[in-house]
Specification:
Alanine--glyoxylate aminotransferase 2, mitochondrial, pyridoxal phosphate, single chain, Aspartate Aminotransferase, domain 2, alpha/beta, Aspartate Aminotransferase, domain 1, seven-stranded mixed beta sheet, binds 4'-deoxy-4'-aminopyridoxal-5'-phosphate, beta-alanine:pyruvate transaminase activity, mitochondrion, 2 domains
Length: about 475
């Protein structure tokens, strides 16, 4: 068997762990935390220190974070400039200020909206992605005076009462009545979907599965679009559309990309029917897709409402909804208030995140390192039968694991977990997603280097090589 790949050097002395013992921590989890969400890995990881793209456990062991704290860490764990800005603000004022003028809130609002095109110039600050999408539903309904909302199957938009109804993956919906007024159209999934179309997605790598038609004659986009038209025919009363929600690359759904042109046609149909278009950029925003600052730009569309969270503040609670003055006018006479939304500590950090993205050429790094990583993973895909698809853009990457390329049957969970766990044991933390939980998600802090991702690919390859003997005949 091959040697374990060498971890790149990183000059940093992790802080000494002074918390409760590992066993006590597990006890507290079982007794006081009891969660619907179990910790990752067979032996859960105890993380207590982080620096840029690296995390450290209680023994001082170092891990390459290829998941970026679930995409929340955009420019690096405890990035010194972001930490400094937050600390300075902590020593100045942290009273929630949105009933007063405050320089951090106002400076940040101006800077953040300068990153968006056209009329997208009005921002509302909230604290989480779910709250942002909740607010976007509220705004779309208020503006259009209609109630129906369409989202895509396999979408993830949050866990509140309203956003769980927007979310359309059974594993993320509870079997309790959900909010009314939501419709889900067929997901234009070019790998697992009915009509293929993988060569029509915007990625430097293509899948091994193509639909039967030639790329310039591909009709997959039209077929998926036809399903959206059917929703109008069968599910919606004419004249009652409020909005159409999508991620611009589906994150939790397994880094699913749509065929080029789908969103553009969908937006036209939605607007013709009186609805507004909402882009959920919670995972795709802030340069993660590399070529563009916002995911919607790769679809050549301009939404009416953009929601953002996670990487916006490098891990501190902060989220935002940006819209046009015309839509914002609809709030006149309505009421909305959010105590912690736009608090000065998060605003100071968020402002610094935007500056760091510019100063340290973070978006360019996501593009260059991400494309390099995608191409290396595509080589592995050609080598291993169990890697069905490699997709994504920039540092938003999915690797779909299957039993074989022909049937594309999801790799059973125990085999997936064996590979996943082994990567962790060799020092690389990867995310998991997809409707069948069979997609490795690689979305590291965007300061990750070429050398780091070479190491990650080496580890991933070694883990697959070791375990595929079990599930491959
Ligand atoms: N939208 C998307 C695309 C997400 O990935 C998430 C979180 N995974 C949310 C919304 C909800 O964000 P939060 O967990 O901050 O409520």
């Amino acid at each position: 068997s091959r040697a374990v790949p060498q971890m790149p050097n990183f000059e940093y002395q992790p802080k000494k762990y002074l918390g409760p013992s590992y066993e006590k921590m597990q006890n507290i989890w079982a007794t006081n935390i009891i969660s619907a969400f179990a910790p990752h890995f067979k032996e859960p990881l105890l993380i207590h220190d982080g620096k840029m793209q690296w995390l450290f456990d209680h023994t001082g062991r170092r891990y390459l974070d290829m998941f970026g704290g679930i995409v929340t860490v955009s420019v690096g764990h405890c990035h010194p400039k972001v930490s400094e800005a937050a600390a300075q603000q902590l020593n100045t004022l942290w009273h929630t200020t949105n009933i007063y003028l405050n320089p951090k809130l106002h400076e940040y609002a101006a800077k953040l909206t300068s990153k968006l095109p056209d009329d997208l110039k009005v921002v509302y600050f909230v604290n989480s992605g779910s709250e942002a999408n909740d607010f976007a539903v509220f705004l779309a309904r208020l503006h259009t005076k209609n109630s129906d909302i369409i989202s895509l199957r396999n979408a993830y938009h949050g866990m509140s009462y309203v956003t769980m109804a927007l979310t359309a993956q059974s594993s993320w919906r509870n079997s309790l009545p959900l909010a009314p007024g939501f419709h889900h159209t067929m997901n234009p999934d070019v790998y697992q979907g009915l009509w293929g179309g993988s060569h029509c997605r915007d990625s430097p790598v293509q899948t091994t599965r193509h639909c039967d038609c030639k790329p310039d004659e591909c009709n997959a986009c039209d077929m998926y679009y036809g399903q959206l038209e059917e929703i109008f025919k069968y599910s919606l009363r004419a004249g009652n559309l409020a909005g159409f929600f999508t991620e611009t690359i589906q994150g939790i759904g397994g880094v699913v990309q749509f065929p080029k042109g789908f969103l553009k046609k969908a937006y036209e149909l939605v607007r013709t029917n009186g609805g507004v278009c909402i882009a959920d950029e919670v995972q795709t925003g802030f340069g993660r897709t590399g070529e563009h600052f916002w995911g919607f730009e790769m679809h050549d569309v301009i939404p009416d409402i953009v929601t953002m969270a996670k990487g916006i503040c490098n891990g501190l609670p902060m989220a935002a909804v940006v819209t046009t003055p015309a839509l914002a006018q609809s709030l006149k006479g309505a009421y909305y208030f959010n105590t912690f939304g736009g608090n000065p500590v998060s605003c100071a950090a968020g402002l610094t995140v935007l500056n760091v993205i510019e100063e340290e050429k973070i978006q360019e790094n996501a593009h260059v390192v991400g494309t390099h990583l995608l191409k290396k993973l595509a080589k592995l895909r050609d080598q291993f039968e169990c890697i069905g698809d490699v997709r994504g853009k920039g540092l938003m990457i999915g690797v779909e694991m299957v039993t074989d390329k022909e049937t594309r049957t999801p790799l059973p969970s125990n085999h997936f977990v064996d590979i996943w766990d082994d990567c962790k044991n060799m020092g690389v933390l990867i995310g998991r997603g997809g409707l069948y939980h069979n997609v490795f998600r690689m979305t590291p802090p965007m300061c990750v280097t070429r050398e780091d991702v070479d190491f990650a690919v080496g580890v991933f390859e070694a883990a697959i090589q070791k375990h595929q003997k079990v599930f491959m005949k």
